[in-house]
Design a protein that fits this description.
The chain is α/β, with parallel strands linked by helices. It has a single domain, classed as Rossmann fold (3-Layer(aba) Sandwich), CATH 3.40.50.150. The protein is built from seven helices and eleven strands. It has helices at residues 49-60, 78-84, 99-106, 113-117, 129-135, 173-180, 199-208, and strands spanning 5-13, 16-25, 30-37, 40-44, 67-72, 89-96, 122-126, 148-153, 183-193, 211-221, 226-236. The strands form two sheets. Strands 7-6-5-8-9-11-10 form a seven-stranded mixed sheet. Strand 1 (5-13) and strand 2 (16-25) form a beta hairpin. Helix 1 (49-60) packs parallel to helix 2 (78-84) and helix 6 packs across helix 7 (199-208). It is globular.
């Protein structure tokens, strides 16, 4: 039997100390995995609906065709695994800046990690998603100018609540246009946010993409006995 609480891994990174914890949640009597940055909670396996919907809603905006997909942010792996569940996905590049997070998956410290790491369609790229985009290196070291059908991002808390100040430029019209240039015509960008729809960010999306929507995803919160909500932004590039 597992102990009621265990710290499975800990590491110092450029953005602070990250740790992976497993505990028994007394409310639901289930095993919960959590990632913390210092004293701040980054993600929890107790709440994964919106991360999974990020993949579903974004890929649903694409036609039925083989898809090449990028996921920015590995985390607990829910967005990436949901993308792989779509049979149209022929390749998936997962970009993760923190080497310890990649290591947790490769060591199978997380449930279902093997589903992601052993899938032949998956490439895990250690790197700063924002820097790779900003500096022009792209998400495929072999083909720097490679374009993709979908780019899904779940890294910051929201467009205005970022983990690192260097991330902020992505959420400007210039940054969004830079991201759009990495998509094929008709490609789609999806973004998870912990906040409600942000009209200023939607305006920036609509300035940079052909279409943009904000979809509120609600889910049961067993800790409060009510519902909680996140936002998934979906934006598409124009077709020629």
């Amino acid at each position: 039997m597992h102990p009621r609480f265990a710290e499975l891994a800990w590491a110092s990174t450029r953005i602070g100390e990250v740790s992976l914890r497993r505990r028994l949640e007394p409310t639901t009597k289930t095993e919960v995995y959590e990632v913390k940055l210092g004293d701040e909670y980054l993600m929890s396996s107790l709440f994964t609906v919106a991360e999974e919907e990020l993949a579903r809603l974004t890929l649903a905006a694409l036609p039925n065709a083989p898809l090449d997909v990028v996921v920015g942010g590995l985390g607990l792996g829910y967005t990436a695994r949901t993308a792989l569940a779509d049979d149209r996905v022929q390749s998936l590049v997962v970009v993760e800046a923190l080497a310890p997070v990649i290591d947790w998956h490769r060591r199978e410290l997380l449930p279902q990690a093997r589903t992601l790491t052993t899938d032949p369609r998956t490439t895990v790229l250690e790197g700063d998603f924002f820097a790779l985009l900003r500096d022009g290196a792209g998400f495929d070291p072999a083909v720097p100018d490679r374009r993709f059908d979908a780019i899904l991002v779940d890294i910051d808390h929201s467009p205005v609540n970022v983990l690192d100040p260097t991330h902020a430029d992505l959420y400007t019209p210039t940054g969004l246009q830079r991201l759009g240039s990495r998509l094929h015509p008709g490609g789609v960008f999806g973004l998870w946010s912990d906040d409600g729809p942000d009209e200023a960010f939607l305006a920036a999306l609509r300035q940079s993409f052909a279409t943009a929507t904000a979809q509120v995803v609600t889910f049961a919160n067993p800790l409060t006995g009510g519902n909680s909500a996140n936002t998934v932004y979906v934006a598409t590039t124009g077709r020629p």
